[in-house]
Amino acid sequence: MRDVLLAYGIFAMYYVLTINTIYLGIILFSMKKIFKIMKESFYSKYDTLSGSKHVPPISILVPAYNEELTIKENVRSLLALHYPKYEVIVVNDGSGDKTLDVMIDEFELTYHPPTMIQNTIATEKVRGVYYNPEFPNLYLVDKENGGKADSLNAGINLSHYPLISSIDADSLLEKDALIRIARKYMENPDEYVAIGGNVRIANGCRIKNGMVEKVNLPKKMWPMFQTVEYLKAFLGGRIGWSEINGLIIVSGAFGVFKKDYVVKVGGYRGGYPGEDMNIILKLHRYMLDNKLPYKIDFCPDAVCWTQAPDSYKILSSQRKRWGRGNLKNMIEEGRFMFMRPKYKVMGWLTIPYNIIFETLSPYFRITGLLALIGYSLLDMSGWTIMAVFMTINVLFGTLLGLGSLLLEEMAFQRYPKFRQYFKMIGYTVLMFFGYRQLGILWRFLGHIDFFKKNNSWGTMTRTSWNEDEEDQAA
Amino acid sequence: MFSNLQAAMWMIGVLLVVMMLVMTVTLVIKARKVWFKKKEASILAEYNDYLDYVQLQLDEEERLRTPLKPLGSLEKKVLQKELLQWVDRLDGMHRRKLLQLCDDLGLIEFNMQRLKSPFSLTKIDAAYYLGALRTGKATPNLFSLLYKTKFDSSVYILARSIVQTAKDPSEVSEALRFLIDNGKQQAQLIADISKETPLDLRELYTRFLEESNPSYIEVGLIGLQDQVELDLSERVHRFMESENRDIRQAAANLLIHSMDLTDEDVEYYLQFPDWEVRKLFAEWIGSAELIQYTNLLRKSLNDTNWIVARTSGQSLIKLGEGGFEVLCEVAGRLDQHHGTAIAKELVEEELKHSIDQAHSLEDITTYNQKVFVYQKFIGENASLTRVM
After folding, report:
1. Which residues of A touch B286 (CB under 8 A)?
2. H or E element: which one contains A206?
3. Comparing C-alpha atoms, which of A337, A217, A203 is closest to residue A277?
4. A130 φ, ψ to 5°?
5. Tens digit of pLDDT per residue, chain A (474 long)?
6. Phi first, then psi: what are they for A423, rounded to 5°?
7. Distance (Å, rounded) from C-alpha A409 to C-alpha A303?
8. Which residue in A has a C-alpha nearest to residue B194's C-alpha?
9. Which helix (H) or strand (E) holds B127?
10. Which residues of B fall within a CB distance of 8 Å from A113?
11. Burial class (CB in 10 A: 0-12, 13-18, 19+), B214
12. Do B30 and A45 touch (CB under 8 A)?
């Protein structure tokens, strides 16, 4: 029994080490690409481009469900983007709060029957379209509740331009975010089917008129953990995955897509969370099935600021949802690409990595930890092995976090103070003492929800962007 | 077990060393950037009076003087960043004077030296500023750097600098040909880069139209949109039949810019199989206020593509009183055509917009005229009256 537990425990140790080693490889790809990104980011003429008529027009789609607190600032920030030609389509997904009224009042929108909407992709019933010629590039679609994917599909049906951009209603785009993605797209418009933007945590930042005026780290613990987590995932991970065209997700918070191909793959899949990963998987599959040259890329200097959950309850609900969505996507799309030569990097690397080291990780990690604890209880000398394993795990993980912070420092420097750097290192280490384990547990609980067919959205509350100012005023 | 544990201990040691290294590098970069920012602020403070002098003397005839003290490399970097921001915002004599000053400050020589650096980031930085300095002397060096650079985003930065520094269209042509021959279908970006030069590129763009590679044709068509050749429209019409959507779009845009179209041409393109071309022409009639095509827009209100139909309606509004009357007439019909619904929607939208915008007596008179036309064709409308 003791030997079996030890053998399984060692297997689990190597499993975690393999994950970290693969991630280290991905970070090295990111390091390789970072100089190219720095050149693009510092020396491309964004000012000239943002006034150029040669830049492709974009339809920005903003699904909104119960977003009365943030929608005004979000839309105002979108209307102030430095981009030559674009439209903003806000889709009210049958909100139970005053999202619709807030939008109508703020922008003095008037009702029109939904005749201007095409039926390219089937959606829930659209009640009407609101418009004000004073804001000629703003549309508000009011429809019955059908979920985020359904709202995006309704937005596509109204959109007038060949590129679409999905943006969460709780997110703020930097003024030049769109033009930065567009410049990348213009380098190879035939092959780019999707380009993702970089999502950063806005909690703690000073927000004014829908813009991040001063960047700060969050004051609360949960958003702080997510800040270092996002830095690692976006800079350490996505830059590297995009270098080998193996990106599995373009964040729903901000990405640009070629509309034709989104329509060709049937639009966004509704009914389940994880529609952002699903659409990317479908695009990879479609392009590779049809042997079309393509690229799905990541543009780290195109920044979108988002509100991170700041309480245990909301965060756990979000992560369970992500776990559920990931499992559904792997069952629905991933298994068709797993180890199939025709799916190239996706088939040989991205999907196997995702299934073995992401989707199934709760099972290996939880059981491995239990085996090691069991072994240690049976033989007290085993504590040394456990301690060494834990130390390696923490150090390796911290090294990956430090690598991401180095990338951040080289190319972006959003957190210039030394104090901020050390705070981020502190949280990178702290993550291994509870937060990571919770992440595994939430993913596991998400799987249980999936098997129990519990498809509720869970807890989700929004905070006003002006919370700090309101607090001060109070 | 012992050897496993020993290996693990070794691994811990290696990880700790690498972590320390990564942290040190990060902190050094951070410290350097903080130091540079402070230094930059102190240099700008030191040269504040000099920069004020430059601004004040820009309108004067005489050549701008350089500072009395010779500039170090850090001072050159800081001042060039500041001065070239002004260069980008100015043109004509002011720009020429500033560029002359930059030359006198030794910035051209400074960047030419940096172009030889072994570090690619320094080379790109130098190329970027040489482009901004518009120095013809740098063009050959920029070309040799372009040819040695791997084809990625850097080549667009270098090509832009070459186009900015070019003194002859043949140099622009060489840079554009390099991008087209080696890159993907990036015609819009190349056309945007080509706009950086003040040189007349009409002949170059026209030559591109004769090429077999569609990217050349597209760049040529886009480029000519700002440098219209009046005798060109005959040649452009044939590109409207191209199988390439981007070429059709670029050709349609050029035809619209040339304004050299017959009534038959306009009618033909409003019924063109490609809906994007139809939309473009419908939009153009409205924005150019070509009232002679009012009846063609009336027909387009029933276009099978809703975007074209709606654009036609919006253009009718832009045509003024006559266009609005046509829209009301269509809206007042009792048929089930989707054009009727679109017309009605647009008419009501326009009336609401007009009353919101009515600030003067003239505005109110215009609004009343519209209401009169509305009532003539559609009659009293309860919902509209409520809004009013």
Report:
1. none
2. strand A206-208
3. A337
4. -110, 140
5. 778 888 888 888 889 889 999 999 999 999 999 999 999 999 987 878 888 888 999 999 999 999 998 898 889 989 999 999 999 999 999 999 999 999 999 998 988 878 777 788 999 999 999 988 789 899 999 999 999 999 999 999 999 899 999 998 888 999 999 999 999 999 999 999 999 999 999 999 998 888 889 999 999 999 999 999 999 999 999 999 999 999 999 998 999 999 999 999 999 998 888 899 999 999 999 999 999 999 999 999 999 999 899 999 999 999 999 999 999 999 999 999 999 999 999 999 999 999 999 999 999 988 988 888 888 788 766 678 778 888 998 999 999 999 999 999 999 999 999 999 999 999 999 999 999 999 999 999 999 999 998 766 555 566 666 655 455 444
6. -65, -40
7. 15
8. A54
9. helix B120-132
10. 341, 345
11. middle
12. no
Q: How far is CA A405 from the centre of its chain?
A: 19
Residue B233 C-alpha from the chain's centroid: 24
Give A299's contacts in chain B (Cβ within 8 Å).
none
Contact between A1 and A378 under an 8 Å Cβ cutoff? The reply is: yes
Chain B, 89 to 148: residues with Cβ < 8 Å from chain A are 120-121, 124-125, 128
**Does residue A186 contact residue A55 with C-beta atoms inside 8 Å?**
yes
**Contact between A259 and A46 (Cβ < 8 Å):** no
Bridge partner residues of A192 (DSSP): A295
What is the spatial order of strands in the sheet that A171-173 belongs to? A110-112, A126-131, A138-143, A86-93, A58-64, A163-167, A254-258, A192-201, A295-306, A171-173
Which residue from B181, B199, B198, B203 is spatially nearest to B190, judged by alpha carbons?
Answer: B181
Residue A88 and residue A75 in contact, taking contact as beta carbons nearer than 8 Å: yes
Q: Is B136 exposed, middle or buried (0-12, 13-18, 19+ CB in 10 A)?
A: exposed
Cβ distance A399 to B19 less than 8 Å, yes or no, reads: yes
Nearest residue, CB atoms, B342 vs list A44, A115, A416: A115
Q: Residue B316: enclosing H or E segment and its boundaries?
A: helix B306-318
In whole angstroms, what is the distance from residue B232 CA to residue B205 CA? 11
Does B27 contact A421 at a Cβ distance shorter than 8 Å?
Answer: yes
Reduced to 3 states (helix: H, G, I; strand: E, B; else coil), residue A463 is: coil
For residue A60, the cross-strand partners are: A88, A165
With tokens 């001042």, the residue in question is: B79
Judge: B19–A55 Cβ closer than 8 Å, yes or no: no
Q: B62: which DSSP letter? A: S
Is B356 within 8 Å of A392 when comparing Cβ atoms? no
- B188 and A116 in contact by Cβ < 8 A? no
Locate the chain A residue with the closest alpha carbon to B16.
A395
Q: Which domains does chain A show, CATH number per domain?
A: 44-335 (3.90.550.10)
B15 and A410 within 8 Å at the Cβ level: the answer is no
Tokens for A287? 């392009």
Q: Which amino acid, A25?
A: G
Spatial CA neighbour of A100 closest among A149, A133, A73, A66: A66
Contacts of A402 in chain B (CB under 8 A): 19, 22-23, 26
B67 conformational bin, left if phi > 0, alpha if psi -120 to 50, beta if neither: beta
Total CB pairs under 8 A between chain A and B: 132
Q: Do A54 and B192 touch (CB under 8 A)?
A: yes
The CA-CA-CA angle for residues A330, A300, A252, to 5°, reads: 40
Chain A residues touching B124 at Cβ < 8 A: 39, 43
Distance between B60 CA and the closest CA of chain A, angstroms: 29
ipTM: 0.90
User: In degrees, to the nearest 5, what angle opens at C-alpha A464 toward C-alphas A461 and A467?
Assistant: 120
Q: Is the dihedral of CA B285, B286, B290, B295 positive or negative?
A: positive
